[in-house]
Queue: 2 jobs
Job 1
Amino acid sequence: MGVSVFAPASVANLAVGYDTLGLCLDGPGDEVYAEFCDTPGITIASIEGDGGKLPLIPAKNTAGRAAQAVLEAVGNVRTGVSLKIHKKMPFGSGMGSSSASAVAGAMAVNELLDRPFSKYELLKFTAMGEQVADGAWHLDNVAPSLLGGIVLVRDGLTLDVQSIPVPDGLRVCVVHPDIEILTKDSRAILSDSVLLGDVIKQQSNLGGLIIGLYNNDLELISRSFKDHIIEPQRSKLIPHFYELQSEAFDLGALGCSISGAGPSVFAFCPNADVAENCGVAISSIWAKHGITCQVHQSGINPVGAKVI
Ligand code: HSE
């Protein structure tokens, strides 16, 4: 008898918090089923929904690596766990696909072993899994996917993550065009140097966004939702980005930016009607230019990964 865990998609960065902010979506997400087996260590028995692209070698697979890290930390070298991974979201989408697998893998093994670690303690193992995908140590997808809500990563190395309150009724619309951008490529185009004036604007907006979320001040959230550093560099990877961003603002979105490393974009909306309208408008703009896409409507999921 095994355990299945669902880990949701997430939106990282939230425009002004590169590698720092992330939020948890209701769906889509990935599932991992874990059960004991005779072979010591982690074995990946099967992967569905990946089109044969993901490695079955646990150390090279985000779910497998995160699961290994949990098992190693428990220290019982004879225990064997077999995983079945169900990818239910696209790669290179900017919705935290590799993170969702890492979170589901770590949590499924933890549940199978009768929870030696708290959810928060799993964060380190999920980040080790995520690192397999892009070589970087960033928690802005794994933390919200695991813990739910909107999360600020104050310091990734010490796993100092803080939950931020979410005003009632906020909705997020994520639109995923049928284009693949790998996170490592989207990170590689970023300049190492940043103008001091842009840092000042960015940190002011990051502070403003967080105060707005704490105080339920939608106008402050909206004024703060402007990325002066990352979006100007990455927008060139996303066809017609400024056209669809402008349309989302016209329709009442509080913010609209690139979801994680792209190519998905998201609209941060005060209610479900605005989110629906943004989804229709953004997908219509892309359709007009011959780009197909999928629209995901979601609240901000307060729970994160869960046993199913
Ligand atoms: N913060 C990361 C990035 C998220 O933007 O590269 C990747 O999903």
Job 2
Amino acid sequence: MTAAANLPSLSPQSTDIVTLQAHILQQQSRHPEATGQFSWILSALAISAKMISAHVRRARLDDVLGAVGSQNVQGEQQQKLDVIANEILLRTLGGREGVAIVASEENEEPVILREDDSAERKYCVMFDPLDGSSNLDICGSVGTIFSILRKDRRKTEPKDSLLQPGAQQVAAGYVLYGSSTVFVLTIGLGVDMFVLDPAYGAFIRVAQGLKIPATNKCYSVNEGNRLSFPAGYQQYLAWAQEQGYSSRYVGAMVGDVHRILLQGGVFMYPPTSKAPKGKLRLMYEANPMAMLVEQAGGKAYSGPGQRILDVQPTDIHQRVPVVLGSTEEVARVMEKLESSG
Ligand code: AHG
Ligand code: MN
Ligand code: MN
């Protein structure tokens, strides 16, 4: 067998091979005024994704599934993987001049990296470093979600410049560490998808301009909470079951939204008695996913008439109910919510 026989064969229908890095440079070249800062931030996210992916694949071997402070078999202190993922993102983004503020679901307070306003443009990056981390224990899908905003320079307090509605996001995306590692990105010009080729260590573009099917008889919700959902959600579920809908729930938002992006359907995290405002976080989960879904032609609401991207945040860790996915499916949920008052 020759050495070449060990390399993956290229798909016969593929023409150009475009890596995430090349894609970012292509986009940048369409904006002659671009300073490159934004591209550097995306490249920090790409390297973070590769590093986190490598840790996820070894999580059990490295014994990083337990609580922070636990010891591995060598008696060394171990960190939970969400702490490791958080550090990776903080360290890769920390080295990028264009990043002024980083805010993570894992940190109570945002990290102010650069306070001077001398540079032309500064960005804020917000992220959920490891979404669905309890899935690691059972070798299930987990992810990273990110959102990029321009720093609001009218605000004197750096933290306040993060409190912008999701409609102001300049980019958003997620990385799914599933059977493949997938990077899904929007910079406001549609949604593109890349898959990590483990043989070459590069994200390769596999789809451009993803579009969510307008309808699919599939809902994704934690039905164990059903009895504490507001009446409209319960009525929608009863209706969907009569219509023969399927139920699919990974328990990691990235996994569930990825399926909906590709196949359609509706994802919901309604208010419950345990979480009256819903469980998902506006800045780290709902806003970036809402931007992706809308860029793919779908809808994202937190209640009737309340588009997620229009919610004015008052706190960086605030939570919102989430209903997103295929246009027709989201509309049906909203109808039930409206008619139930
Ligand atoms: P995280 O692991 O970042 O805290 O997020 C978990 C979230 C989200 O990924 C998922 O959709 C939801 O929690 C699942 O919650 P339930 O277990 O209550 O269904
Ligand atoms: Mn999460
Ligand atoms: Mn998380």
